[in-house]
Write a structure and sequence with these properties.
This protein is α/β, with parallel strands linked by helices. The chain contains 3 helices and 6 strands; from the N terminus they run E-E-E-H-E-H-E-H-E. Helix 1 links the parallel strand 3 and strand 4.
Length: 116
């Protein structure tokens, strides 16, 4: 079994992405913290793109520390889901805070994403 490791990809005063990879099952966990908005969404996209070419059967976005998400952030999640599905993988949203879950419900994304 391969040991997982955490790597800080982005850390600013308003947003952070930590990527935990190295799982033997091909799972990569993105731990998002702070505000995922029009300023930080490109940083998340870059963090995902940096893993391009790696086998990622499952992408997990841990939303437990995400305080805010706007349409730009939602767009990046949808783009990541589309790419994963095209590659035959899956994407999970883990532990969203109540306000984040409410946004996902309002825009109808709880029927598109697997939310655990």
């Amino acid at each position: 079994m391969t040991e997982s490791k955490a790597t800080t990809v982005v850390e600013t005063p308003a947003f952070a992405v930590h990527v935990e990879d190295g799982h033997s099952d091909g799972e990569i966990v993105f731990q998002l913290a702070g505000e995922l908005d029009c300023d930080s969404a490109p940083q998340l996209r870059q963090a995902i793109d940096d893993l391009n070419g790696r086998e990622m059967r499952t992408l997990v976005f841990d939303l437990s520390s995400l305080e805010f998400i706007d349409s730009s952030g939602l767009h990046q999640l949808v783009v990541a889901l589309k790419r994963q599905r095209e590659a035959g993988g899956e994407l999970l949203l883990r532990a969203p805070r109540p306000q984040t879950l409410r946004v996902l419900e309002i825009v109808g994304l709880t029927t598109v994403f697997a939310v655990t």
